[in-house]
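User: Modeling request: complex.
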Amino acid sequence: MTRYDNLAGIIGERIEQGLYTGGQRLPSVRALSLEHEVSISTVQQAYRVLEDRRLVEARPKSGYFVSQKHELAALPAMCRPAQRPVEISQWGLVLKLLRSDPSDGMVHLGPGMPDISSPTLKPLMKWLSRTALHPDLRGMNYGDISGARVLREQIARLMVDSGSLLSADDILITTGCHEALSIALHALCQPGDIVAVDSPSFHGVTQAMKAFSIKALEIPTDPVTGISLDALALALEQWPIKAIQVTPNCNNPLGYIMPDSHKQALLSLAQRYDTPIIEDDVYGDLAYHYPRPHTIKSFDEDGRVLLCSSFSKTLAPGLRVGWMVPGRYMEKAIHMKYINTGATALQPQLAVAEFVRGGYYLKHLRRMRARYQLNCEIMTDWIKTYFPLETRVSRPQGGFLIWIELPEHFDSLRLSRQLENLLIQIAVGPVFSASGKYRHCLRLSFAAKLTDKMEAAVKTIGETIKQQLREHPGEG
Amino acid sequence: MTRYDNLAGIIGERIEQGLYTGGQRLPSVRALSLEHEVSISTVQQAYRVLEDRRLVEARPKSGYFVSQKHELAALPAMCRPAQRPVEISQWGLVLKLLRSDPSDGMVHLGPGMPDISSPTLKPLMKWLSRTALHPDLRGMNYGDISGARVLREQIARLMVDSGSLLSADDILITTGCHEALSIALHALCQPGDIVAVDSPSFHGVTQAMKAFSIKALEIPTDPVTGISLDALALALEQWPIKAIQVTPNCNNPLGYIMPDSHKQALLSLAQRYDTPIIEDDVYGDLAYHYPRPHTIKSFDEDGRVLLCSSFSKTLAPGLRVGWMVPGRYMEKAIHMKYINTGATALQPQLAVAEFVRGGYYLKHLRRMRARYQLNCEIMTDWIKTYFPLETRVSRPQGGFLIWIELPEHFDSLRLSRQLENLLIQIAVGPVFSASGKYRHCLRLSFAAKLTDKMEAAVKTIGETIKQQLREHPGEG
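Assistant: Request completed. Predicted assembly structure:
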């Protein structure tokens, strides 16, 4: 980690903890330079990072101030500590979310579907089209069981940004991040095994655990710093945990980026208990600040991290091009890959490789990062405007998903049913828990263009929530 | 089944059983018409089917005769009855087969790779290209978890030929037949369960069983009629068999088509023991005679057959477009599909749907069937010419794979190593057994254009075999 990143992390944490509040003046550049024994320019860079994260505002000739916006919404609470590993439920709700038909005329705020309409994606379509017509029929064969080498080379190149120096041989192409996560779980676990997950959790992982009869231990997770290391340490002491599954960068659904110091501490913990880590980095490239955050994998020295990712959130999910870096579990992962799907569709792999090689990927990322960051601000404002005062909201640092927490007696399933009649679709909280927690929560996507129709939908959601809270005021 | 198909089956079986031998005159059309109480034209049609299968030759003004070619090679023997369920080995050999690089300058007779160079495939490339550029970005979304409805509708239409009346809702699109088979096994079995398989078996299935810690019970399989029903009945009586997995049409590697009567008897057996059947039909559309053979699924009345197939062998494997008809196990199959890959790449699905809808698929099939049938004759002749006299050879009734059995002490692994130095690649027998049987067997593919170079390669294989048999004459 660079010095300015480190400093930005420290100041950011103080703001999050409420040591500095909205509108308050922050220490001067010179003061911080003296305090932390770093150069003036390091402090300036640190403040720039915090500006990018919208925690800090620079006022000409006055210095740096905690952003006013910042204190507008309280953060979601951490869930209670896990009592015991649970079998996974909620498949019915997940299926309902999956079954949502994008052409049914509803406003879809539920699925984790990226915006695929950007003109910066056009070269990809051209490559897809061109590859299909290539006279050597290059996209039609089975191809290498590990995936097209040209693509693996490009992925290795991209992953330098996340702190990893890899070669094409370290990478296994998969049919989306889904297959990567499924392979990772299957390669590590037997039925009845326990996997510790951050909570709320991505439903793709928990439902895969269900399929493999793996039990979930839901670890309380901080909406800013990620999985609670204390709670995890306790769990590792108490239970025979077979693997730790986390999404440390641009977490789904909470949107946080785990600080590097936490990533390293998590890795140390995993080393101490000799436990592998399944790291989902599928939103990592969509962090609002650049350079993008490090992966846990980038600190991994003994191959215990199985990194899983894909182009589904950055480019388009229909491509089904994902990958994994399974570390010391490569051999097992290849077996699982073979029996899962034999190979991954080749033509999209070749097209993506050309797209990345031509520099179009980074250009597209720049645009999408800026777009999603702006949408995040707008969506946060809408929620603040239209939702009840007691609403708690996540502060996404990347991606296009926002997590909303309402008073504990609130019922997002009832809300969802009411909204369906109003042609609005959301993702209900229990989908993100192995055991059906978070019934008082919901997740919204702000990937699509935020039109007036969208604002009207968010307003309707807010009003429907208020109405439910009026009609069912709870016991408190 | 039509009357003429039925009659063709009866006569064909008599020929196979040696009741009529090569060159012998067959009963007249009138005699058969009287004997079987069918019309003259039914008998004529039956004989035409047998001509297509190269069992029978018409001689002008003399009638029908058993084909001379027919008796040229003895059939492979059935393997010995299974002793007990076994854990699956042979992954190393399978991986070696998968790792073979099509561009390494070798003659590849090993992999089950179809010929993708036919001009009848060109409209598919056009559709792939066109779909990629479509302004509504139709190929870029996740799409329906069950797969694109337009494609499922076309598959339902195609499956009428195999005797099944289905709707799009009965079908689940998968990432190749591989994923379909994997889903089927995962949906039905727990670790430690036993699955009965025809033997030799497709390595994709046995290796998937390994991944799920399922044990294989290898059932002796007749090279003409398929899995031994007697042996299977005995096994069902003796062991708690969780599922039966067979490839009844254009079997890989044996090439037989199980007679309809056997298919029905197999289904009855499965019903009696309340066991599901996983039917692999991936080569079914490549049967040399038309209409194509029925599936076991087409006789299934209680949804116990999970049919698995794909366009990998008929069109191109790089598309990774397969499907399954999971019958009563649909709900579980959808869960497994979701956790496996989330969805299947959408653009290839849409292109294939257009290709089938436009009638190009059936046109392409006609061409490939004729091509593979011709190649089968040529390859059989080459083997007869260049291989030792004691060679036993399968009689493929579809597809592009041929199974070769040598004296029991022969070692195909040694052969394979020797051939590698001569730049020839084959598939060794043990790959097709969960327990490493068939070391004295090999499989060759005749999908590619059979050039002089190919003939030279087959000649080299034959000579290398003869040399090994001379140097290691065995104990008998």
